[in-house]
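Journal club side-thread
Mid-discussion, someone asked how the predicted structure for our own chain would compare to the paper's figures. Pasting it here so we can look after the session.
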Amino acid sequence: MSKTDESIFEWTEKVPLSDSIVLKQLFLIILIAVTFTFIVVLVIERGAFGELLLIFSGILIFLFLFLLFVVYFLNFILKGGFETEFRIGGKGISTQSGTASKRVNNMTILGGIFGFLSGSKSAGATATGAGLISKTRESEMIRWSEIRKISVYSNKKMIMVHRKSFFGPILVVCTEHNFSDVLQYIKSKQQYEIYYN
């Protein structure tokens, strides 16, 4: 949804990185990636199940702890999370990352390139790839027809909008003043599965 589209609701709010909803999504991504890699390596290295399970369990624990450190560090630096602009209108829901988020994405890409050039090719490529993926999600939109279900977190004033494709949910962080109106508008657009948490 561009700025010229008719927006019923438009506001800016911080997405708290250290919130359990965000952390759950990040942990799920890591778990899927490590599990997939484990299965591929297990197929290649038949017969080493016990050793591989131990190695990948260690990797998974390290990645979880590292993710927690990075999330809480960014949360501290950004004073509560990334500022995001939300728009809800006739076509759907869109988000636009704030300038701090864009700067972090650009720094990740540059850090990856410098890491690659300094000799750490795998770490540099990983960081550059992560930065590029984040860059593609700086602006997102989900049309009403693409929504499969919504999860409502009334106490946190958040609404998780899930796509029919099962990938790339959007977290809508509302204000104290607009939460009930935004929720009613989203519910009025189509019939979705609605879960209250």
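Post-session note: Residues 123-136 have pLDDT under 50 and may be disordered.
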